[in-house]
Design the sequence.
């Protein structure tokens, strides 16, 4: 999508709601502008200040909306990105999460676990329950095989969850990962979804699915089982 403000002077903030979660890059005169800085008080990227200039933007997860600021002297392009949408629930309070350097430490740890640069992890929401973090993993714009890269990242995430090697500073209670194409559509294949719940009821374990297999995880023990 392209936006141009045709006026002699002035500027405007535009808000676009999306039916599905997705990763979007905002370009002002063909220069990509990052999301606003994280605001721990509201658990999302900070409100637009309108002081940064054309292209200032943020994407807010859960509510799934993109906001950007446009002036009369630039063209805005919104470019969808192939991405992986991930949500993890950690056995922490919000105070404990932010006391551990919050988003910065979380992104560094997740990037190390997935083998991607920290700049390719975009956190869009943090909220209570215990602590739920929603983020996207995007590919480099110059990547010639983005889907292969995302498949490898997804496999690394599932492997870390199943084998209990994902160190995020607190136990992972639940995790989901969904591949999202550049149209914002979630993939329907079996290996596009991974869900894990380490809490057990009556010795029944939740199931994590990958490819044609499922893994049962209960009390920190993993056994390959039937779907």
Sequence:
């Amino acid at each position: 999508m392209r936006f141009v403000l045709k006026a002699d002077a002035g500027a405007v903030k535009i808000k676009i709601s999306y039916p599905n979660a997705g990763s979007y890059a905002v370009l002002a005169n063909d220069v990509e502008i990052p999301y606003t800085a994280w605001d721990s008080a509201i658990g999302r990227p900070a409100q637009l200040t309108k002081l940064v200039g054309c292209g200032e933007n943020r994407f807010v997860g859960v509510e799934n909306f993109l906001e950007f600021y446009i002036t009369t002297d630039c063209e805005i392009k919104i470019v969808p990105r192939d991405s992986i949408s991930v949500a993890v629930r950690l056995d922490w309070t919000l105070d404990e999460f932010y006391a551990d350097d919050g988003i910065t430490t979380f992104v560094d740890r997740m990037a190390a676990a997935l083998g991607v640069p920290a700049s390719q992890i975009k956190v869009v929401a943090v909220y209570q329950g215990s602590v739920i973090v929603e983020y996207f993993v995007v590919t480099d714009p110059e990547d010639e095989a983005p889907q292969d890269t995302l498949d490898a990242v997804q496999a690394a995430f599932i492997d870390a969850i199943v084998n209990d090697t994902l160190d995020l500073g607190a136990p992972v209670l639940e995790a989901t990962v969904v591949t999202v194409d550049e149209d914002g559509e979630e993939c329907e294949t079996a290996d596009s979804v991974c869900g894990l719940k380490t809490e057990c009821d009556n010795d029944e374990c939740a199931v994590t699915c990958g490819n044609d297999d499922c893994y049962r995880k209960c009390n920190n023990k993993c056994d390959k089982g039937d779907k």
